């Protein structure tokens, strides 16, 4: 059985979605004849594109010869999808003889146009939910506390862009003539899809974690909290500083360590100015190599993770694997994955004072810390491995192709 993968990259690990793609797609070669056709974003401002293609090919994935002729020098990076004419012109250059096209992280619609052009069945996975208008507005608003008044321009642009992105992604799905299935990495993500265009499946498990993380687990905790991910407002970095200030106002003397990369200088400056003005005890580690990051997280007493932009949250899964309990916002996607895990406590999104209360409670009684070392949590982590994720997807693909 031949599967054509269409996505933006098979070499980067900058997000949960890209981590999933890299771990799963290469494993698919154990089951299928796999080829890779990059989406347009793979080529935009990427002088190393040909080298990356050669590396991918050497790792067992075929690259059609026509891919090496692609050129998109006239296009610039865009948060929103390009016009349909761009994708139609791209699809005309792609000739396939596959049994299925699979888009492992649906963010741009090349797979839809290529499927229609070649009349090949299409399956896709969603790692981010399709946000409603209220979610686009409220989540963006919550993510900017306590800097909303300094960030109204960002609030307006982000809210509108997030909603438009969702509507365009949804609109392109409706254009697919050969859609076979849509898979979600969490029930919350799957529930956000209101389109009855194809069969919907829950990938279970939806994401995995490397087993090596379990080696770092330790009950010898040091006296600090931790936060790590891409350091942007939707992931909760501004809320994290606000929560620490709230704890300080309660008389809770707490240290924190932050790891990751700030993408926007504006919010980086807001963050550090707020830390200095409020004398918060935060150590910024920057973008940290994995071993040091794992050691740091494993020794923390608690991960506070007020993210408002996740479809699953590998960060939470990695924290549990490393033996560190979590307090997180109860956005539907993350809640649907971890609601029954006793080492994760949820707070209604945007309720910063409640997060601080729950953190104070945990620092005093260690209830979540006890739970994270339970057999139940360890079993949950061990089940969420990349082999199981791949096998879940393989069952879906075989069921679709064999029964069409």
Rg for CA atoms: 22 Å
| Gap between N and C termini | 14 Å
Quaternary structure classification: single chain
What is the CATH top level name of the largest domain? Alpha Beta
CATH architecture annotation name of the largest domain: 3-Layer(aba) Sandwich
| Side-by-side strand order of the widest sheet | 2-1-3-4-5-6
Shape: globular
- What profile does the largest beta sheet have? 6 strands, parallel
Protein name: Glycosyl transferase family 1 domain-containing protein
GO molecular function: glycosyltransferase activity
Domain Glycosyl transferase family: 217-369
Keywords: Transferase
In short:
The chain has 404 residues and is an alpha/beta fold. The protein has 2 domains: 2-208 and 385-402, Glycogen Phosphorylase B (Rossmann fold, 3-Layer(aba) Sandwich), CATH 3.40.50.2000; 211-383, Glycogen Phosphorylase B (Rossmann fold, 3-Layer(aba) Sandwich). It has helices spanning 16-28, 49-58, 84-92, 110-118, 133-143, 152-174, 187-191, 237-249, 265-277, 290-299, 314-321, 332-338, 352-365, 367-372, 375-383, 386-402, and strands at residues 2-7, 33-38, 100-103, 122-126, 179-184, 199-202, 225-228, 256-259, 282-286, 302-305, 326-329, 344-347.
Describe the structure.
The chain is α/β, with parallel strands linked by helices and 404 residues long. The chain folds into 2 domains: 225 residues, 3-Layer(aba) Sandwich (Rossmann fold), CATH 3.40.50.2000; 173 residues, 3-Layer(aba) Sandwich (Rossmann fold), CATH 3.40.50. It is 44% helix and 14% strand. It has 16 helices and 12 strands. A 6-stranded parallel sheet has the order 2-1-3-4-5-6, with helices on both faces. A 6-stranded parallel sheet has the order 9-8-7-10-11-12, sandwiched between helices. Helix 3 crosses helix 4, helix 5 runs antiparallel to helix 6 and helix 8 crosses helix 13. It is globular, with a radius of gyration of 22 Å.
